[in-house]
Each structure stands twice: as C-alpha cells, then as structure tokens.
Write a structure and sequence with these properties.
With 502 residues, the chain is of the alpha/beta class. The protein is built from 16 helices and 26 strands. α4 (90-100) packs across α5.
Length: 502
C-alpha cells in the first residue's frame, strides 16, 4: 500500500521558519514549524473529545489558517473532516450532518448563529473558534504515532450538488491531494518562493486545492482573506505579494468592472488560472489588453480537482481551450457506445488516475453509476480535442437540448450572447415547445449602465448562429443564482421560469 508522508510534518522539517500562512486582515503570520505544532496539538485535542479513527467532524468557517490546521489535524488523528457551506440554512445542512454522522462541529464567530441553529436541531456538540486556542493550550504537541498516511485513506468529504441540487459526499484522499499538487506544479511551475491568495470558499474544492494545498506542500505562502474582496485582492496583486492567482469567472468579471481595473498593475503575478465555469472570450481579451494571459482549466470535485489547465504560451492562440491533460490525469473522449472519438468530434469526457476519487461516501449506487470497472469516471461533460491535442469543453450532456431534430449546446449560444456589448452574463435552457420539441430560453443580465431589448438580442444572435440555435424566449434579470464555484445554477433558473409560467 502506498503511503504518503505527513504534509505538515515534512514541511516543518524542510522549512520550519518559512511563512506558511498570512492572514491579511490581522497581519498574523504562521511558520511551517508553528503550523505543524499547532496541528499536532489540535489532533490530540480532537481525540480528547471522544472522536476516534474514521469518525467524522464538521466545520463551518470563513477562510482562515485555523481551517487548515484542523484539516491537517484530522489527517494526523485519522479523522474525516466535513466542511459545511456557510451560505446554506440549518434545514439544508442538517441532512448532511445526519448523512455523515458528524460527532462535533467547529465554527468561527461569523457562523455562530448558523452553528447554534444546527446544534438546536441535531444536538451536535459545538466547538467555537473562541475556545480553539484554549483547547490547543490544554493539549500536548507530541507527534501522533503515524508519520505517513495510506494514500487511499479518506481525508475529508466535500458535499457537492453541482448544478443539480442533490448533494453527494465526494471522498477526498491523501493520494488525490498529492496528485493534484503534481498536476498544479506541472501546469504552473510551482516552487517554494511562490505565494497565492486564498479566498474561494473552503467548503469547495477550489478553496482548498486551488492553489492553497499545492502551495503549502511546495513550501510557499498562502495569504488569506475571509472571503473575496476585490479591493483587498487588487491591493495584494498591485503590491507584488502574489505570484499565482486562481479565480472563477465571476472573480475576473468583478476585477474587470472595478474602478481600479484600467490602472491596476498585474505584471507581478506570473500565472493566472481560471476554472469552475467557462471564461467568456470578451473577458479573456480584456485581460490580454492588460498583459494578462488567463489560463482556463477544467476539473471536478471528483478529480481532486485538476485535470486540465492551459499553458500560458498558447492561452491567446487557443482561446476557449482548457489545455491538455496534466501529468497524472488520463482522459478519454467517447461516444454513446463507449468508443473513442476522433479529433474534432464531440464525445463525453472520461477521467482516470490517482487524482480521481474512489467514490461517494456511503453511496455505492452513485459510485457505481459514476465510475466503471476500469476506474474511468464519467464527467457528464461533452468535449472535443483539436489536432494539436488541446481540449475544449462543449457543454454538459444534460444541458444539451434538441430543437427540430438538431442538437443545441447552450454554451455555444451563451458565448454569442455575452459577446454583445450590453450583455454581462447569459444562461440558456432548453424548454418544451409544441412545434419544435424544445427551444432555447435565454436568461440574460446586462452590464452596468447598459440595456438591450430581447428582439435586438435575437437579431444579434441570428447574425452569428443558425436559426434553430437562436433563443425563442429571452428573460432579463439582475443577477444569477450560483454555486460556490460561481457556476450558474440552471436548475434554479428553470424552476423560476416554470413558476413565472404557472
């Protein structure tokens, strides 16, 4: 059985005095040596609460170094951590706590109200961060007896509903974390002198793994802000404190709309990554004008997450591509019968490798449906590969609809809509139609200070797309419902559209 050295202990041995985490608001810095000692104390404190190997504990908090201390402490204590979404309600979180049989819940001050609501409903013991330092002080810092971990041991669970609304607990292992580190290192040339900004929510794989854990493993610095703040992020970027940056499209959109964007200095960040959803071409070009080559990527919570990340050298030439599969990721494109498709043809993306989850915790049916006997994970995404080996994500299989016998991929229509100068974002759904079977219903938000009429948008789209791809219905809204990764929740939009028609 492959075993992986304790990440925190190893970093403390290799670079004990280097800064691991910097909490920007308070200025607090924690070295790798201090971090490892605190994680050891935390592991022993967790054990003192009657939590044993394989048990689950939950955590509710905004971004902070304490989260990572608890995460690594769970690894040392052989306990499974379950990060919870602080945007959700007790009614939404209680079934998750029941599903994973959590033994206790850590929480910060900002989520105290939500945590107490959960405790009242479930009787779950709470450990507020206000008690955390006292717990560490009362604990001892001796290293737990295990100095290396089985690569396939469950480390933490990420409950993901994606865009479907039904949560499943995706198992995350130490082997997946190491594979993701290798894939990120390959794609970004990550080294110990690198630094990144941690702000994406920690109940999501991007918050933990893009690029916080890889930077930690490499010995670099994680600057942390509790949640995204465009002013704080731009200030850190402009001051030259970051060398790597990863954001979802909504973050790049926020930067582009910020009053300081035109004068902002982005030159000292050497690698820019984006994932979670497609980055529109107009945004890519807006950043290119600033000398920034944003590298699109693609992965899933189930893939740890990194599978694809575009190389900067081809980011401008291959706009729309997510790059090539990284070092420890196998990829196939298959048709409906499971046969490989040729370059330029549409197929479902299948993934395999040490970065892929072993499955869904306590849900063998969902695991069997997603991962076949040869270890290939079905992504549910339609993609294609060009003659140079670069991959493009066409759309989600379930989002495709058939209008008058023709396949329509909403992502293609959305890309045309957002190219309109008045459009900020767009989402297209297939809806029933008596004549054509299905037609497109576009939901659109406009840029600040801009407006556009639906008929004008339809005319604009028809100039660029075949008639059957032009949305029959267009609804203008102010903002979209989103997942933690910034993806538009199309199932929520569909419900809202159906409610309007009722």
């Amino acid at each position: 059985m492959q075993r992986i050295a304790d990440f925190a202990r190893k970093r403390a041995e290799l670079s004990p005095h280097a800064v691991a985490f910097h909490e920007v608001e308070s200025g607090r810095q924690i070295t790798f040596g201090e971090f490892n000692e605190r994680a050891n104390r935390c592991a022993n404190a967790i054990r003192s609460q009657g939590v044993g190997p394989g048990d689950r504990i939950a955590i509710l908090c905004h971004n902070c170094a304490t989260f990572f201390e608890i995460l690594l402490a769970c690894a040392k204590a052989e306990v499974i951590l379950v990060p919870l979404n602080w945007r959700q309600t007790p009614a939404e979180l209680a079934p998750i706590l029941a599903d994973c049989s959590a033994k206790l819940l850590f929480h910060d001050d900002a989520t105290a109200g939500l945590a107490h609501g959960l405790a009242r409903a479930s009787g779950l013991p709470l450990i507020p961060f206000a008690r955390y330092e006292a717990l560490l002080a009362d604990s001892h810092a001796t290293v737990p007896p295990e100095s290396a971990w089985p690569a396939d041991r469950v480390w933490y669970l990420l409950y993901t509903s994606g865009t479907t609304g039904k949560p499943k607990a995706v198992i995350q292992t130490f082997g997946m974390a190491l594979a993701n580190y290798v894939n990120i290192q390959q794609a970004t040339s990550l080294i110990a002198t690198d630094s990144t900004l941690n702000f994406l929510p920690l109940f999501h794989t991007a918050g933990i793994n893009l690029h916080a854990l890889p930077v930690f493993i490499a010995g670099g610095v994680n600057h942390i802000i509790p949640k995204f703040d465009a002013d704080a992020a731009l200030r850190l970027i402009g001051d030259g404190n970051l060398t790597l940056f990863f954001g979802v499209p909504a973050i790049y959109q926020a930067f582009s709309l910020h009053a300081a964007f035109d004068k902002a200095d982005f030159s000292r960040v050497r690698h820019w990554g984006c994932g979670g959803a497609p980055l529109p071409e107009n945004l890519i070009r807006a950043f290119l004008k600033k000398g920034v080559r944003v590298c699109n990527g693609m992965g899933m919570t189930e893939t740890g997450p990194t599978v694809f990340l575009m190389d900067p050298e081809h980011a401008e030439k291959k706009i729309g591509s997510v790059g090539k599969p990284q070092l420890l990721a196998e990829v196939r494109l298959v048709d409906g019968k499971g046969n490989n498709v040729a370059d330029g043809e549409h197929g479902e993306l299948l993934f395999r490798g040490p970065n892929v989850t072993p499955g869904y915790f306590g849900n063998p049916e969902a695991t069997a449906a997603a991962i076949n006997g040869d270890g290939w994970l079905r992504s549910g995404d339609v993609g294609l590969r060009d003659a140079d080996g670069y991959y493009y994500i066409v759309d989600r299989i379930k989002d495709m609809y058939i209008s008058g016998g023709e396949n329509v991929y909403p992502a293609e229509v959305e890309a045309v809509l957002v190219s309109h100068p008045a459009v900020l974002e767009a989402a297209v759904l297939g809806v029933p139609d008596d004549k054509w079977g299905e037609v497109g219903h576009a939901v659109v938000s406009t840029r600040p200070g801009k407006s556009v009429e639906p008929d004008a948008l339809r005319a604009y789209t028809r100039e660029r797309l075949a008639a059957y791809k032009v949305p029959k219905h267009i609804t203008l809204i102010d903002d979209f419902p989103r997942t933690a990764a910034g993806k538009i929740q199309k199932h929520v939009l569909r419900t809202r559209i159906e409610e309007r028609k009722a």
